[in-house]
Automatic annotation (TrEMBL), chain A:
EC number: 3.4.23.-
Pfam families attached to this UniProt entry: Presenilin (PF01080)
Protein name according to UniProt: Presenilin
Protein source organism: Lolium multiflorum (Italian ryegrass)
Localization per record: Endoplasmic reticulum membrane; Golgi apparatus membrane
Automatic annotation (TrEMBL), chain B:
Pfam families noted in UniProt: Aph-1
Regions crossing the membrane: 6-25, 30-52, 64-85, 115-137, 157-179, 191-209, 215-232
Record-stated family: Belongs to the APH-1 family.
UniProt key word Magnesium: no
Species this protein is from: Lolium multiflorum (Italian ryegrass)
Protein's recorded name: Gamma-secretase subunit APH1-like
Subcellular location(s) per record: Membrane
PANTHER family to which the protein is assigned, alphabetical: GAMMA-SECRETASE SUBUNIT APH-1
InterPro entries xref list: Aph-1
GO cellular component: membrane
Keywords assigned by UniProt, alphabetized: Membrane, Notch signaling pathway, Transmembrane, Transmembrane helix
Length: 436, 244
């Protein structure tokens, strides 16, 4: 029975069969959060799949075999060397971020752009190519060398262009390219020994907390520079597609925004500029750091592996830069007072998450996958819960917040709790077929 | 027993959950968030339970009475957690209603509230299925299978998948019944949910007897069907009396 005619001014929702119910707030609430949780989950899922396929003990990949022989007899994988490695990494990331802030201050746009492109191409080509080779050999896919040599550079070029200049490609491709870069980098990090990975995660979470909130921190300096010039931070940032709050539907507004003249597009599309200290050109100090380590003794094998990837490490510096951006959130106050101007403000309620956050979440989950799937599920829920808490805090405080600390803390906590407490309990109950 | 068997077991346990997700929950982002938070809630309650019981494990496999205590405490704890979840939900509902008033949109209607309770229940059921069945399925993707001594007729994975399916249905729909009972203050609904949960959990104790899983598992499915039918009747009543 349909209540028929036009409803009176008081909105009394009558459940009309056949989907004719008036649209309540439940239809579109929380959409922007889902648009971030979705890609983060996809990235974690792909990394877990890669780890499961490529890290099986039956056929160890040549890469892990090489790493294992390098740190043989457990000489490298203990707490002190892990802490040293993590500390070194954090110091390098801090230095690189300060360098990036310096370059941004001097408005070196070409070098920022060029370095962004170079690092995207390097990650996709070297890391992506290696992982493709590992997958081909592990899954025994029939693909000859010539086709591979043709396909890989083409795919890499397309993805790199999509990642670096988002204005010229569809947004889905751009987001897919960013996710590909995040997945490859995260998988690479999971190849580190166990204690090193955990120490690295905790160190990066602490660094993130300090770098954003402490007034002299590099990320905070960068953010303040960007805000006072009203420009975008130059780095790879994942931006969820904004949603128009006035309509209940998913109207893609990002295309309708007017980009101002010039290189900087402070509105929806993700920024092109990125800076990187190319270890070959701009940063001789890093190279010096690299050279003596190549001949160091096996006790420093950990450090050697990590430092053997300077671009990766510094990549992470630039990828780490953008955090959750304090866009004017799609909240009640804004839409009340700016109804006419709704499009500009409402659609800028997109949440931005730095690619480094994607990477470290996936590293945590990937490392949990190396133990068992129960830890994967627990860590996944913990990270998503931490992300939700961070987004709530973002809506509350309305300024840039670090995305890593809460999630990584919860993730590590849940990993430890699952491994020590939950697993025994669940195994005891399940093997006796007792469930509740 | 190969990827196909592993995927089959996973689908037995999670098939209805996937269809519910795709058909109902994925359409409204808020329900997805409710699902994720209720899954996290259930996981936290499970971790607390396992923390409490850590000192007493491993239990001696001969005696059955420690398992009774385990089941009783676990069910009691989870029903308590359900009450806490209800309190949280009331707070969220108030905030949502205030938000809706501010932006001059209609408040949450009955269908919305039931959808939220469905998402909450599905989160609990999903967490149960994931942690009790799915996380143990990894060997099933390999090349062999596993039989428990006390249940030598069915592979362990199949039994745990069917039990998880039963509990998924029970958790999902008893959340709807429970929220309705707490909201309307109907004693019958409020009592029904813990009782069903307890009976279903005690029924899995039958699995402790040799060959008991052949009896216990179908009985569990009967309980799931009972919950489903009760929920169907209750929702039908609420919707018809709301329309008039």
């Amino acid at each position: 029975m349909a209540d028929g005619g036009p409803a009176p001014a008081v909105a009394v929702p009558v459940p009309v069969p056949g989907g004719g119910a008036p649209a309540t707030i439940l239809d579109s609430l929380g959409e922007d959060i889902t648009r971030i949780v979705g890609p983060v989950s996809t990235c974690m899922l792909i990394v877990v799949l890669l780890v499961s396929i490529l890290s099986s003990p039956s056929s160890p990949s040549p890469l892990t075999a090489a790493l294992n022989t390098a740190s043989a007899a457990g000489a490298g994988d203990d707490l002190t060397s892990a802490l040293i490695t993590a500390g070194t990494f954090v110091v390098c990331v801090t230095a690189a971020t300060f360098l990036m802030a310096l370059l941004f201050y001097f408005r070196c746009t070409p070098c920022l752009r060029a370095y962004m492109g170079f690092s995207a191409i390097w990650v996709l080509l070297a890391l992506g190519g290696q992982i493709c080779l590992l997958l081909l050999s592990r899954l025994r896919l029939p693909l000859d060398a010539v086709s591979f040599a043709l396909l890989l550079p083409n795919a890499v070029a397309a993805l790199a262009v999509a990642a670096v200049s988002p204005a010229s490609v569809p947004i889905a491709l751009h987001q897919a390219a960013l996710l590909a870069i995040a997945v490859l980098t995260a998988f690479w990090f999971t190849l580190l020994p166990e204690w090193t990975t955990w120490a690295l995660l905790v160190a990066m979470a602490v660094y993130d907390l300090g770098a954003v909130l402490i007034p002299g921190g590099p990320l905070r300096v960068l953010l303040e520079l960007a805000m006072e010039r009203n420009e975008e931070i130059p780095a790879l940032i994942y931006e969820a597609r904004p949603v128009d709050p006035r309509h209940g539907q998913n109207w893609r507004l990002w295309a309708s925004r007017q980009p101002p003249a010039g290189d900087f597009d402070p509105t929806s599309t993700v920024e092109v500029l990125g800076t990187r200290s190319n270890s070959a050109d701009l940063d001789p100090s890093l190279r010096q750091f690299l050279v003596p380590n190549l001949s160091s003794n096996p006790a420093n094998a950990q450090a050697r592996e990590v430092l053997a990837l300077p671009e990766t490490r510094v990549d992470i510096a630039a990828l780490r830069v953008p955090l959750i951006q304090p866009q004017p959130d799609r909240t009640r106050e804004d839409s009340d007072s700016h109804d006419e101007d709704g499009i500009g403000l409402g659609s800028s309620g997109a949440i931005k998450l730095g690619l480094g956050d994607f990477i470290f979440y996936s590293v945590l989950v990937g490392r949990a996958a190396m133990y068992d799937y129960m830890t994967v599920y627990a860590c996944y829920l913990a990270i998503i819960g931490g992300l939700g808490v961070t987004l709530l805090l973002l809506a509350f405080f309305r300024k840039a917040l670090p995305a890593l600390p809460v999630s990584i803390t919860l993730g590590v906590l849940f990993y430890v709790l699952t491994r020590t407490l939950l697993e025994n309990f669940v195994m005891q109950c399940s093997t006796n077929l007792l469930m509740f | 027993m190969t990827v196909a068997a592993g995927a089959g077991y996973a689908l037995i346990a999670l098939g209805p959950a996937f269809s519910l997700f795709a058909g109902v929950i994925a359409r409204k982002p808020f329900l997805v968030l409710t699902l994720l938070s209720s899954t996290l809630f259930w996981l936290v309650s499970l971790i607390v339970l396992s923390g409490i019981w850590r000192g007493f494990l491993p239990l001696k496999s001969g005696a059955w009475w420690p398992y009774v205590i385990l089941i009783l405490t676990s069910v009691a704890f989870q029903e308590g957690v359900r009450l806490v979840f209800w309190r949280l939900y009331k707070k969220v509902e108030e905030m949502l209603d205030a938000f809706a008033d501010r932006i001059a949109k209609p408040r949450l209607c009955l269908t919305d509230k039931m959808l939220i309770s469905l998402a909450g229940g599905l989160g609990h059921g999903l967490a149960h299925a994931v942690f009790f069945c799915l996380s143990l399925l990894t060997p099933a993707f390999g090349q062999a299978t596993f039989y428990v001594e006390r249940c030598s007729r069915m592979p362990f994975f199949l039994v745990s998948a069917i039990i998880s399916l039963g509990f998924l249905v029970i958790h999902t729909f008893s959340m709807i019944i429970a929220f309705n009972g707490y909201g309307e203050r109907k004693k019958s609904d409020q009592i029904f949910v813990p009782v069903i949960h307890l009976i279903a959990a005690v029924m899995t104790l039958i699995n402790l007897a040799p060959g008991g899983c052949l009896i216990g598992t179908p009985l569990l499915c009967v309980m799931a069907a009972l919950t489903l039918q009760y929920s169907w009747r209750m929702v039908g009543q609420r919707l018809t009396e709301h329309e008039h």
